[in-house]
Queue: 2 jobs
Job 1
Amino acid sequence: MEPLLDIRGLRTYFFLRHAVVKAVKHLSVFPGEMVGLVGETGSGKSVTALSVLRLIQPPGRVISGEIIFQGRNLLALSEAEMNNSVRGRAITMIFQNPRSCLNPVLTAGTQIARVYQTHCGGTTRQARERALEFLRLVQIPDPESVFNRYPHQLSGGMCQRVMIAMALICEPALVIADEATTGLDVTVQDQILTLMRELRNKTHTAQLFITHDLGVVAETCDRVLVMYSGRIVEAGAVNEVYARPLHPYTSALLNSVPDLRKDSRPRSIPGEVPDPRNLPPGCPFHPRCDRCTDMCRVQEPILVSRGGSRQVACHASVQTEE
Amino acid sequence: MRLLVYVTKRLLLLVPTLLGVSIVCFTLIRVLPGNPVYMIVGPYATLEEIARVKADLGFDKPIYQQYLIYLNDVLHGDLGYSWHTSQPVARDLLQRFPLSFELSTISLVIALGVAIPLGVVSAVHRGSWLDHIARVLAVIGVSMPLFWSGLVLSYVFFFRLHWAPPPLGTLDPMMQPPPRLTGMILIDSLIARRWDAFQSALAHLALPAVTLAFSMIGSVTRMTRSSMAEVLHSDFVRTATAFGLPRRTVIYRDALQNALLPVVTMVGMLYGFALGGTVLVEMIFGLAGMGSYAFGSIMNMDYAGVEGVVLVVAVVFVVVNLLVDILYAIIDPRISYR
Amino acid sequence: MTLPIASGPAGNGLRWKPGLSRQLDYSWYVIRRNPVTLLGFVVVTLFVAVGLLAPLIARRDPIEVAPAFALQSPCRQFWFGTDQYGRDVFSRIVHSARLDLFIALTSVGLAFAIGTAIGALAGYYGGALDATLMRLTDIVLAFPPFILAMGTAAALGAGTANIIYVVGFIQAPIYARLVRGEILSARERPYAEAARCSGNSGLGVVFIHLLPNCLPPLLVQVANNLSWAILNAAGLSFIGLGVRPPTPEWGSMISEGVQFMMSGRWWLFMFPGLAIFVTILGFNLLADGLRDVFDPRLRW
């Protein structure tokens, strides 16, 4: 099956005063699947999403690579084409802190309808009808009343639902959710994730979940990609990766999640996340890795396929296999 | 509905504020000056005359009673008697207020009309040559004393270049003024269809208005610029862009609407500044407004005149601020909700 | 970040907080780096220097009348020309710098002292005291500043001392509000509680411990207010409510010079005005640069 979104060799660099921070990505999303992109803060997850929609601001810049979406290289399109056919239409994105993502002086409904009118045309009434329809779709109890409310009058969960409605109203092929549930109450989080799953089942929209929360990924996604220091270090089906992690970082991450059944303390990963401006040579994880070899210190491992959808970038795992 | 509650609350707050203003004005006019009695009777007065004037002025009564008398007078439109114009202060002010109002309003409109676009363009095109020019203009405008820039403009455009008319009032001295309806020369000449008067008034008001406007442009530009720059980096602008809304809409509707909110609150303060500035500008350009009346009163040691101006201007300022607050509550849905 | 240190009952007095000196260092760095801010700093330093050294810079007596030399345009003997009484304009401008420096410092000092005290007490003790004090400052703020200055100066009469009181009085509410806000947030912090527990009286806590840590935003305000004080003093002098003649003051020099403007004697109003303009410009450029130290979001 052809991937819906295929990111190849994407290099996004940030030109800071004294250093250049690099982020490299290879990533695919297939139609209708839910993919999780996991990593700690600062691992470069959001940069991926922003690069796809070409929202990277100076001092950042996309240096090289290809982002193939529905047969076109997004990096080769003009700004106008991005606005007209991609952003808000074929690929949409929802963010953390939904209330601050909405314009405070416009009503929720106006903002949703506006997205529809911009991309699909139609009269104000038609847009309003469609907006109400989608407010119902995201299970908002009183759509007419919420339509006329301002963002500060809505709860965090409601705002996120409004954003989801906005994201779906033009029936995109891919929705990117960047830490969409972070900061919401756990119960609300659960509701939103259930909603996203149901929507995928109903509309077959592919979804890319960017999060630091392994639990979210476990519940919602089909496939997972693990990121560290701007690179993808492991990929595969969720249940496989979680059951049998290949990369030391992945297994350490999974071990660090506290288990209510066990009586032991959660094990943290020794060391610290490296300063992106000053990465260690070789594999960026090697200073903290318990399976570090000489090659790890010198040469950066590349992502290799390990059967099926499994990929891993680790010298040690290759050696273990052999 | 909530808006109504907010407006009512603010209107109720108006009363203590105005009372406070009146107390301060009373203090200025009665409590502070050494002995105004001598001002009135002169240095050769007899003891009886002094006593009589004292009783007349109510100086023999306790302070709070004097205040109540003062308040009562004010509420009945009696602001005292101006001895240098031989008229009640209230009548003088009624005559002169419209011109000052006209001048400050025109200046404010010019200032906003120039500064807001400048600030917006500055923020949108940060670092460009336009941005640098705007920045330079803004800091110069804020640093130039109003009375000096007026003089410089007058010197350059009237004395040297002969482009502007002589700084002597609002109309050509040879011209018949239009019938006085509102007291505002531009409006009166329009109503009377006197295009010659309108043109002449425009020419005469140009330099004073520009002077006053120039002093305000600096701060408005800076405020607009920083507010706009902040909004352009906000989450919702990024989100709007992420949803493919055209750049034009995102900047000039979403961002601008939000960025202008702090500027609106500034307008009230600016108006106060403009009213204060009329004192200086009217004197320089020979305009017969409230400001030059205050100046004349000062020159002639006419306390009633000065303090009358202070009271009226303060009241206008308070009212304008109230209107600005209400306007703000209307355009920002977050305010009346709280 | 080093936490502010609370000390015992007033015996220890004021400790030099490490954070404050770090901020001063950074301020100096900012001043050096940005050429515009540096220019502002240079101008302000020049103003202070001229003010302090006035008698040395301008040897001629600014008040002495010399009708023989009246109304001369700028030349080698009189750099800025002479006025209608034959007084050297340059000398008068230099001496006025000294006067304005004095007025600025004292009036802002007065405003700072009164306003800070009011704001600190209102913010710390809250309740009825807070409400009353804030009502009072609100009433002062209900007037357009220059109008209130004019009215008060008219009531008190002209004279240098009166200008200082007036200008200080109208600026005090600004400090009161600022300090009140700072104290309101500061009094909830752990170090405030520590100071209370160490046995300090309420006033001790406020003035010795809380206030020094609230200083940075106040400094920016001070820089702004110094220029504002000069502007107001000049404005009041211009309309005749300020410094009494024959003491030279930039504002009154301009108003005296107006009568000669139409006969082409531009130097009488041009130079004093330029002096005000350049000085205030310097303060503004400096204040802009310093604001970046304390609130980078507002950077131009």
Job 2
Amino acid sequence: MSDAAVAAHDELVAHVIRVIAATQHMPVDAIGIENTFEELKIDSLDGINIVFALESEFHISIPDEAMQNLKSIRDTVEGVRQLLAQKEQAGSPA
Amino acid sequence: MVRVAVTGMGTVCALGSTVAECWAQLSFGKPGFSPLTVPGVPPYKFSLAAVATRYVPLEHFSEKETSMLERFAQFAAVAAREAMKQSGLELTTELKEQTAIITGTSVGGQFAEEEGYVRLFRDNVPRVAPLTIPRTMSNAGASRISFEFGIVGPTYTISTACSSSNHAIGQAFGMVRRGEVLAAIAGGSEAVFAEGLMRAWEAMRVVSPDTCRPFSLQRRGLILGEGGAMLVLENWDHAKARGARILGEICGFGMSSDAHHITQPTPEGPLRAIRMALADAKISPEAVDYVNAHGTGTTVNDSTECEAIRRAFGSHAERLLVSSTKSMHGHTLGAAGAIEAVTSLLALQHGLVPPTANFIDPDPACALDVVPNEPRQANIETAISNSFAFGGLNAVLVLRRIS
């Protein structure tokens, strides 16, 4: 990855973590990219809430099947990244 | 059939966030109304409300919990904690299976619903928050109490408007008395101050533009209130065997339906509920000393209720003390029966009848001793507590002092 791509990725990680922290009423620094939802005590209802918040924040639509595969912060960031990339490819306005 | 003891009580309302705080105000006849002004919201036709101003959610729940648990469910859980603590009930695995939770609420979680409507119909955003369903559901309080205490017995919620929590307590009383469970947490809660719901009450034209003056000639309606109350009901022998302090006894319950009109009451429905409650308690009308009235402060309720009391008690009605404590804690709708059951039990315990506050002149249509304005010391042993709901659904509890 280029430096710009690394910076963009880091920013996306931070952004996703901010959304999750706000939804969970947790401090941002309590959440790391390596954490699983289980470690963070994020249950299925929290997951629904987080997905809703991410959809609103990034103007994306997360399919139900994709949501069921989210088990960690890394999964979530990767899912959001892919959906943003798809959106860009489709040429929809940001 | 076994006797049913009350071994714990908990309350949150405009008068305070504990039973002791509430009684301090009730026993002095001091209303808990405050001016209703919401920044950015056009004024209502009424200006007073019984808001639980001393209740601070974050003193009881984490920030995350408050985002999942509506105010009405928080009231239910906080009242249950206080009641359980007072009861000293030790929930063994076995007892957890033999304890019921029955709560009452009129509308459940209104705030989540209204937030959803704002998104949908004002902001034109066709999606609502995922927690809308679990926040809105009327059983949220009962479920919260269940998983907080690990109680796995019969648990459900009753919604009969302003009789909800009397029906809940009555059902729990029946279950304990019939030996189906050893204990029960029963009561109700309501959080009415959501804008849409208040506008709906405003449109009904039953909320007083000044204050709540039950049984007064000058009465102009009710004052809306929020809060919750829970009782721990317990099999008498079980309570005795563990050396629990018994706070009072529930000894009868009666219920009826007017089968008449969606909002207009009849005296016959309440009369049947009172008679049924007395028969259930196996006592004569003359045995009753105090009536905690439904006493909303509307023209029609108060005169109809007084007629029902006169017909139920005959000449003994002259000797009854009748007060409406809604003149102090407001009409808490689905929580009313529970808050008033706690109030009645405290009145019996202390030998002190909380008054009908804000009283000006007597109304000939309500010519009973309504204990105007000043609390009254009285040697009272047995009380009834009335709840009569819109839709004509009536529920009456009989409560007894333990000497």
